[in-house]
Amino acid sequence: MHALINYVRSGQPDLTNRQMALLLSVYLTPGPHTVRGLARLLGVSKPVVTRALNTLGTLGYLRRERDEADRRNVFIARTDRGNDFLAGFGHIIDGEAERLARPRPRMAVG
Description:
It is a single chain. This protein has five helices and two strands, in the order H-H-H-H-E-E-H. The chain is mainly alpha-helical. The longest helix has 22 residues, at 80-101.
């Protein structure tokens, strides 16, 4: 819970679960990534992925790249800005994990 509160307070854009799942899928699974492949992976339609990509592209977290070998194909690529966003999100999660791992002081029973 604290991790989400810290994320909201961070000033970073609020991503939907779908957008976050898409972003993490691109960054944590081997590519190349396509709209069709991401839709299959997430179990959603291609228009759903396209809308999420539009938002993530506007934020600079992902970008579309034409396949030089076959110009009809478009790949979804990572960006430095997206990497920085996820690194910051990871630090928030790590901070919460460290907080939870610290021993709590015992209360006196009286």
